[in-house]
Design goal:
Order of helices and strands: EHEHEHEEHEEHEHE
Number of domains: 1
Number of helices: 6
Strand content: 15-25%
CATH superfamily: Ribonuclease Inhibitor
Shape: globular
Helix content: 25-40%
Amino acid sequence: MIESTKQVTKLEIDCYGREKITDQGLGYICKSIRSLTSLKSLNLNFGGCSSIKDIGTPSLGQALRRLKRLNSINLNFKGCCDISDKEMLKLVVSLKKIRSLQEINLNFSGRKGNINSRISDVALQKLSLKLRNFMNLQNVSLNFSLCSQITDRGIQSLTQCLKSLVYLQIIDLSFRSIGRLMNDTRSELSRVTSHLPCLREKSIML
């Protein structure tokens, strides 16, 4: 169990590839960290933990609601292909009390031979609306590759969101092998990101 102390400002937990970790295991870990209210940086790597299905309630969402001082969030659930829009929306809601976020890194991609067909435009649209509230964001990294239900609507919402994030310095977007995209959607995303005033690094894969 993680020692509960108000002095902890940075936490990294790497459980990559541990397929036996379930929602219950994730809940135990998150219950241990939610008292670390001085955390400024949180990095949770559950990539390949394919038994995880419900990230939104109650464990991870409850933890994030209490970590109001976070300025950096890194959540990796690559290959957890049972995670759906419902869980994503609960996660997005849990971010609302974090005011000073500067960096967000979310990976909910599928993996080779395992496509996520449960995360769609609905989740990406809600996430985009929430990101607009983080006016001080400097680093955005989103990986939803192999999420086959994401289409033009989701990418267009994200594009509109990025217009308002004028302090962005780094953008890393990966949406490979998703639903069909029109060329206009690709062009508009490229155009908008090219005109962000503080941007110094950009990687976009569609």
